[in-house]
Write a structure and sequence with these properties.
Blueprint: H1 2-29, H2 43-63, E1 74-75, H3 82-90, E2 95-100, E3 107-115, E4 124-132, E5 137-145, H4 158-165, E6 168-169, H5 170-176, E7 181-182
Parallel strand pairs: 5-7
Antiparallel strand pairs: 1-5, 2-3, 2-6, 3-4, 4-5
Length: 187
């Protein structure tokens, strides 16, 4: 009986190891099948777009003398916004506040924008940030939510302030600034 126990333990140990290894291999083979129809998101591009939106929000906060972080949450440009950005840019009633960038020779534009994620969600007051280049190209930088109410140190609602600042109609933005293309990042 002692002989059998000595042989059985190592044999049992080997069988347990083999079973564990086969389970591990099978589990790793079926974790996430990669399909061309569903590519993994480009995390680096997402982070880059978020950073652009953050910088744009900070610039808008300086322009409107808002406390840091007032224009939050901020959202970077994503493919899900392409249609909404194109519609805002193409709509003849859109108006823009345009500011020259120091030393860059380009412009920073802000436009009031109401958006919603899903049809059942409420419309949100937002600001669309655009980079207007001398080459005639316009790049969306993202957008930020506009909080209701009067910001600290102001005498009127921020939505109204932005509305008064947005003096450039869509047609003038195109003609005066030589806009020829709305370009969006490719993912």
């Amino acid at each position: 009986m002692i002989f059998r126990t000595k042989m059985t333990l190592p044999l049992l140990f080997i069988l347990v190891l083999m079973w564990t290894f086969s389970c591990t291999v099978r589990a790793s083979e079926f974790v996430l099948p990669l399909e061309p129809e569903h590519p993994l998101p480009d995390v680096q591009a997402h982070i880059s777009e978020e950073a652009k939106a953050e910088q744009a929000a900070e610039l808008a906060e300086k322009i409107f003398a808002l406390p840091g972080g007032h224009l939050r949450p901020v959202y970077g440009y994503g493919d899900n916004l392409h249609h909404a950005v194109a519609m805002q840019f193409q709509y003849s009633g859109s108006r823009f506040a345009v500011y020259e960038r120091e030393g860059a020779g380009d412009w920073f534009a802000i436009s009031q924008w109401t958006i919603r994620g899903e049809p059942e969600e409420p419309w949100l007051k937002s600001i669309l940030f655009l980079d207007v280049r001398r080459t005639g190209e316009v790049y969306p930088l993202g957008h930020a939510t506009v909080k209701d109410g009067v910001p600290p140190g102001h005498t009127e609602d921020l939505w109204r302030t932005i509305q008064r600042a947005a003096r450039t109609p869509q047609r003038d933005l195109i003609n005066k600034f030589g806009v020829t293309h709305l370009l969006t990042p490719v993912y």
